[in-house]
Amino acid sequence: MPNASNPSPSVTSPTHSPRVAAIVGPYTAGKTSLMEALLFVAGAIPRKGSVAAGTSVGDASAEARSRQMTVEPNVAHCRFLDEPWIFLDCPGSVELAQEAMSALMVADIAIVVAEPDPARAVTLAPLLRFLDERRIPHVLFVNKLDKTSIRMRDLLSALQQVSAKPLVLREVPIREGDAITGYVDLVSERAYLWRDNKVSDLIEMPDSIRPRETEARQQLLETIADFDDSLLEQLLEDRVPAPKDIYSRLRKDLAEDLIVPVFFGSAEHGNGVLRLWKALRHEAPHHEETMTRLDVDADDPKAGGALSATVFKTLHQSHTGKLSLARLWRGQIAENAQLGGRRLSGLYRLMGGQSEKTAQAQAGEIVGLGRLDDIATGQHLNGEGHGRAIADWPRPAQPVHAIALHPTDRKDEVKLTAALHKLCEEDPSLMIEQGGGELRLKGQGEIHLKLSLDKLQHRFNVGVRSSAPQTEYRETIRHGAHQHARFKRQSGGHGQFADIKVDIAPQPRGAGYHFVNRVVGGAIPKNFIPAVDEGVQESLVRGPLGFPVVDVAVTLTDGQFHSVDSSDQAFRTCGGLAMTEGLMKCAPVLLEPIQAVTFTVPTEYTAKVHAIVSSRRGQILGISARADWPGWDEIDCYLPEAEMHDLAVELRSMTLGVGGFSAKFNHLQELAGKLADRVVEDRRRMLAAA
Ligand SMILES: Nc1nc2c(ncn2[C@@H]2O[C@H](COP(=O)(O)OP(=O)(O)O)[C@@H](O)[C@H]2O)c(=O)[nH]1
Ligand SMILES: [Mg+2]
What we know:
- By secondary structure, the chain is α+β, with helices and mostly antiparallel strands.
- Helix content is 28%, strand content 30%.
- The protein is elongated.
- Residues 31-32, 70, 89, 92 line the site of magnesium ion.
- Residues 27-33, 50-52, 70, 92, 113, 143-144, 146-147, 266-268 line the site of guanosine-5'-diphosphate.
């Protein structure tokens, strides 16, 4: 692994405080590769590693390397032209979106890495929306231009469809045949030829590019003139604005998220990376500006002392214990400082997979805070305690996928629960739940949960087996019956005796269980009646089909007792007997849980959702335009829970990963025929084996 130099904590002026850029975008767009290229250009690493070879600074954990996939934000420090920078290279998988969202909350700027494919533009829609809703300054970097001959304007118009803010092309490509070999900068109007992983060559602008350059530059100027009257005036009077005025306008517009500058290149070949660096250096806001945007410490800048920080990620590592990754907003922090009302136990700087102890850190930095046991992700800390949290912190997404967990070794159960709690603390989009007699792990998809199982194994040394969760079937009855039951036993001393008559009757769906006592004239003494009820309820835990029985009314109509031999226990047993025999005569029927599901997809996928729903025995209830999401639909339907296990997987594979759904239990519905027979048969086999 390339071992990065640990940046020295030199004293810098406030304007040279570290800036934080989050690198975000869809999975495999090239974010981790771009971070590697940026670090290499800055001289922070001696060699440029690669994701494929497992030598990149990012993705150093076992889980990331084995998948060649970013699974947690990769933090890396560097200096560019003597200014400190920190990158947060975020996971791109939609299943790990929570990680990216939290990192974005503390970043000064986001670099959105895009695939050079108009058909995939839609995959950026949720991310761009998140950025615009929170006015997080962001630039777009169109990557992988080494392997495409895409027309930039086609790509841009597809991307513009999913961005609320105007995209502003900052350069136009120079081509040789089909290949893109360089660019013309639209502000300086200089032309460059790329050289792989080296500084580009300044060249004379080719005549062939001039018309395109003029047109694109005009578009850039007109877009930013919308926010600047004096610039507009100059354009109307056909005067050429000075580059410094254009740059300062661009900087302002970026900081206020009025525009989205667009750059391009190839992370793999190191093309366009220095150009991106220069834009970051000149145009990215500093942490003081970010604090203003986020309204951090606004009410009382001195509240709780001179320190403040926001925790955006919690990690449990074997060598450091709990580590809270935080953006430090104010003050110089020492390794033994007081933060959040407690004394730190260790201050760390992170570089890819390495975390190194440091004696102090300055405002603007990303640091690892050691052992802040009761501090959670999203909390804003000052010296004495907690400050007001950043508004609009992303709420954890609702789980869409679940598995049942079984420790491979029974005596690991306690260890498993403890480890799971730590995983959930690391990742708020993960949840554990006890249901249907099994322990379930719920999260954002198959990869998300598999990843958690790997962590259980690697980091906590707990082996688990997983299975699809059991559907929680119920059963009920179609008609009623009268049942007489007598329990009589003579064994040694005094015996046991109870005799009851009950009416069993079906109830409307959802009415639950009712017990009514109609015994008159003391046929059964009052004190034994509750025991009958208990016996009945115990038997309802497992009905004739093997599942809990719901929606029945049981009326006790008559009975007999014996003055010596009758007891609570005898009547309880008798209640159970009556039900076991009685329910068989009542045409038991299986009930399956039905969920109310709402899908959200771009309109072009609505027909596919239709197909998914009908292939899973679902029922469409309605389709409407998604409020505030132009070009998206919302599809409401009912789906049997038994058909939902891998719904998230299928939906995503059919919608480029952007389709989503939320689900909630709605009602129980009768299930008959072959499907029901199979469920009952499986249950019988399972109970026999237990
Ligand atoms: N051809 C080409 N491949 C690239 C480029 N950048 C990244 N890749 C490849 O795309 C794959 C995903 O890259 P990675 O950086 O892990 O993407 P991430 O998921 O966005 O972090 C890897 O196989 C990279 O080698 C690029 O500029 N050009
Ligand atoms: Mg990555």
